[in-house]
């Protein structure tokens, strides 16, 4: 069961769709238009963001929006059309934290099956310790590992990404982490 509402009307002609297995050999039920026969596919949404760090500290943003208002998160949000994953991560970091960063590479890919999302986080080196958070953020602040408010982290994807980051840092080598969250 996904988080989004089912498709109700055809995007091509406006007719009410029916959910059935298409006649083209597909094996899943899809929204099919009985009038123009368009098959509508529902795909996961991409969430893109960064794990900004400066020395031994990471940047977290305190949310000023729901869900999870007042909880801490990494700067991230939904990827927009006409942007790459890295462009979206840079945009979200600017919008939420007002932070100057340099991307260092993809760090974590987390599939959140129950809500139909895939989260991508890049490691990002902060170029300044001055932040200018946007309207979605109450506060942007640097935390060392022992200062992180672990019980106040907004999302499991963020907690998992932070745990991987600190474990990799202790090991002295960063790798890409792929995590499935049912």
Automatic annotation (TrEMBL):
Keyword Ribosomal protein attributed: no
GO molecular function: hydrolase activity
Alphabetical UniProt keywords: Hydrolase
Named cofactor requirement(s): Mg(2+)
Residue ranges constituting the Nudix hydrolase domain according to the UniProt record: 43-166
Domain of life assignment: Bacteria
The protein's name: NUDIX hydrolase
Source organism: Curvibacter microcysteis
